[in-house]
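Appendix B: a complete holo record

For completeness, this appendix reproduces one full record from the ligand-bound portion of the collection. The bound molecule is manganese (II) ion. The inputs are the chain sequence and the ligand SMILES; the output is the full three-dimensional arrangement of the complex, encoded as structure tokens. No fields have been trimmed.
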Amino acid sequence: MNFSELADVILKHNSFIVTSHIMPDGDALGSVLALTLALKKLGKNVVPIINDIVPAKFNFLPYADKLRPYTPQVDKAEVIICLDSGDVERLGFKNDLRSIGDLIVNLDHHKSNSLFGDINIIDDKSSATGELVYRLIKTLGVPIDLDMATCIYTSIITDTGSAKYSNTTPSCLKILSEMVEIGVRPDYISREVFEKKSYASILLLKEALDTLKLAEGGQVAYMELTRDMFKKAGAKEEDSDGFINFAREIDGVEVAVLFREQEDLKIKVGLRSKVWVDVSRIAEKFGGGGHARAAGCTLEGPLEKAKDVFLSALSEHIRKSKRD
Ligand SMILES: [Mn+2]
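The structure of the chain with manganese (II) ion bound, as generated:
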């Protein structure tokens, strides 16, 4: 389906749930809020749902105070629009989506999307789902106001690392430029999103950096975070956002890995690459997914075992990638 067909479907319906993945990032939240605001402009009934805690740093986003988790028996809609989520589990609904919405729309830019919607628009060339939401809002004919522009701008700069990762395209730069013309202040958004780290987060960073190691002749850099480190620093899960970049930015490193021990003692593995290793493929081997330069998966603990298993699979993946 294309955008104008999707816009026709949207215009024919009245009640919507707009949702995105758990552990929401700037793209998830910016996309959900921008589309929610646009649908409200069309006079639609819209509930923005995030089934997880929204990191406090995103409270500045317009309408963020209206985000809430799904309430059984209360939340029902004709159309449920799922944004930026590669599969249905990541949306974090306890109930079957079919019992919540009659029509499921899946709009995403993850290469490894499972096509769980009745309508699927997947474009892995898009820098961020916010870019797809921008195109949809334009197709719907809704003029983009400053609130929507703030959300779209935030979703694109968070997924492109302030327009510096390899997914930065002419099209996303044009959209950013248009959002600035509408009135978005890049310095303001940058401060809100990237420069409001808690002291606990920096204490946690010290702990993580203490574990930094290189492998594969310096092509791999990895770090770990245990529950004890979170406790010692007084830090929350979201406080480790962006740590992996310290490993990725080392000269000669192609793949950066952050192993994070969860409350249930499973190990979350965050992955970033710089130029030529497709980390989504290694994440998929362990039941995860993502993009070529940013992906993730979850392994069974304990930490030492997960590290061994993952790092040897990664080494093999890197050597094989080279031969291809
Ligand atoms: Mn995204």
